[in-house]
Amino acid sequence: MDSLAKIRDFYINKNNYYYTQLVKHINLLLNKKGSVLELGCGTGYVLNKLHGIAKTGIDISQEMIEISKEKYSGIEFVCTEKPETLGKKFEYIIVSDTLGYLSDIQEFLGTIKPLFERESRLIITIHNHIWNPILRLAESFKLKMPYVHENWLQQSEVINLLNLEEYQVISHSRKVLLPIYIPFVSNFINRYIAPLPIINWFCLIEIIVARLVPLQKDYSVSVIVPARNEEGNISKIINGVPNMGNGTELIFIEGNSSDKTYEAIQSESEKYLGEIDIKYFKQNGTGKKDAVYKGFEKATGEILMILDADATVKPAELKKFYAAISKGKGEFIYGSRLVYPMEKEAMQTLNQIANEAFASIFSWIFNQRITDTLCGTKVLFKSDWESLKSDIMSFGKNDPFGDFDLLFGAYKGNLKFLEIPIKYRARDYGNTNISRFKNGGDLLKMTFKAAGRIKFV
């Protein structure tokens, strides 16, 4: 590696457009205030361009590290073959275009585990194996830095190695169809053409985001119940919500009902005083999203759960969600009403068609299967909510329910998605608070905006 140190920056400058694109797509995955470690940092170019307030670079080449230290102040550079001995943990561990140099990738993935916390993310970039002949040709014409490969793994092979070492893959994507700069043409192709189905298979950069599977543990839980005109369902909710983990609090946010929902919450809460931890508040704003977010702010539990007050999902189902998140199977866990057969009249035909259409669009945007975007039952850690909420708000004010806000925010925050099928029941009391066509139009606008921020970048 020392032999490449003196020519590395020459080839980076020669292929500046490629490296600009690489940095851009990694930065889209980073929190600007996070701690970043790059394993195989070379001469520090990529690390210097990445977001982060505390950055560390490691390389096995002393020559590379010396060049990095001379060029970039404010970044810690260390020459070592044992990054696990750093004695620190990082929010982001970057392994960019480095796996090909390693003789045993599985062993490497095992040795870096001490660098991880629950929230830590491993971001790996590799080259699409389809490009192998082109890149070899570019090397022969001295258009690209010589690359001494120990291996050339496909994306599926890297994912398999991650699974073997108890990492969970959060997302995988392909970027950059044209890695050389042609004014106007390159940016247009890479932003608008490269994400399209089939064409995307031929992109050069493959990005994998993963996390280390955490150990199972118990947590405290807050169940948020937004309730408007649900007087007849309050008793069912209170009697049905199970006690989970280290304790469960039930938080009702009443939304200026025209019936006696608030009075029902008060009277039912008094019956269970000292037995069930129940809190209730009146909503200041309007809409389900506003109620849910107020509940999040009032919650004291480590895990936040949303349960609709219409009782179309039995409260007992929450046990499944708690088991999944406490065992580390996911971080953003949502219900799907479209797997099991649902009760007659539980969902109108137009609603089901719209739900299935949105699910297909989201599956394409996220590059993972989503079967239901609008199920009200959703679960995440409060610490993740605190990290995500500023970015969630940036998607706009079109979402009246908060479901799309949370989905887009969780994806942008690199949370591990998990879908749990639930039995969807018809209402026993009251009428839906949804305005189908108006709300559907608002959600469609938000979907287009999110596609621009996630897919066409």
UniProtKB/TrEMBL annotation:
The record's annotation in Pfam families points to: Glycos_transf_2, Methyltransf_23
The entry's keywords: Transferase
Give all residue intervals belonging to the BRCT domain.
105-169
Kindly give the InterPro entries that the UniProt entry links to this protein. BRCT_dom, Glyco_trans_2-like, Nucleotide-diphossugar_trans, SAM-dependent_MTases_sf
**Mind listing the GO biological process terms from this record?**
protein N-linked glycosylation
Q: Which CDD domains match?
A: AdoMet_MTases, DPM_DPG-synthase_like
Keyword Metal-binding listed: no
Q: What GO molecular function terms would the record report? A: transferase activity
Q: Which PANTHER family does UniProt cross-reference here?
A: DOLICHYL-PHOSPHATE BETA-GLUCOSYLTRANSFERASE, GLYCOSYL TRANSFERASE
What's the protein called, per UniProt? Glycosyltransferase
**What is the originating organism of this protein?**
candidate division WWE3 bacterium
